[in-house]
Amino acid sequence: MTNRFSPETVNRNWEIYRMRVKEKRTLLASGQKFGLCRERVRQIVAKCELIISTDHDRKRAQINKEELLMGQLDLSYRIQNALGNYRPNFKTLTVKEFCDQQPPSKLFMIPNLGRTSIKELLRQIEGANKDVSDIWTAGHGENYNPTKHGRRGS
Question: Nearest Cα to 84, choosing from 129, 68, 75?
Fold first, then answer.
């Protein structure tokens, strides 16, 4: 049995991933070259995709949070379109600039930006370590409770 962390195994796994994803080969064709069943090829491809997404998340986390642009946040198309119609240059603003320039009352007045979209937007802004307690208040008047809105107190 080969060591699963050996360079040969790692290279084989990335070769299988390349064949399956980049060259669009079938599971059977990818597995036959290395003597693997279709299910094992599927597992290897899933693991490689997990590694790639984890690396991408790690690189995003290393970006200086103060310099993170609104365009770099993982916002839904609805939010991007609504903010783009309201403020066309919003993607070029840093999260800090956006929050400083955005009056909380105006956020609720943007067309096609409902409660759910606003919550998603604020979760993304919170992910950039920006305090949004002055923007979102539960029930539009009660005190903001981070644990109630999905963010644990530190």
Answer: 75
Same domain, 70 and 136: yes
Residues 17 and 49 in one domain: yes
CB 128 within 8 A of CB 68: yes
Q: Which of 71, 66, 61 is nearest to 97 (CA)?
A: 66
| Residue appearing with tokens 């963010």 | 151
Centre a 10 Å sphere on the Cβ of residue 95 and count the other Cβ atoms it contains.
Answer: 22
CA distance 134 to 17: 46
74 and 135 inside one domain? yes
How would you write the pLDDT of the chain (154 residues) with one tens digit per residue?
A: 556 667 788 888 888 988 888 888 999 999 999 999 999 999 999 988 888 777 666 665 555 555 778 888 888 888 889 998 888 888 888 888 887 887 666 777 888 888 888 888 888 877 776 666 655 554 444 444 555 555 554 4
Instruction: Kindly report the pTM of this predicted structure.
Output: 0.46
58 and 38 in one domain? yes
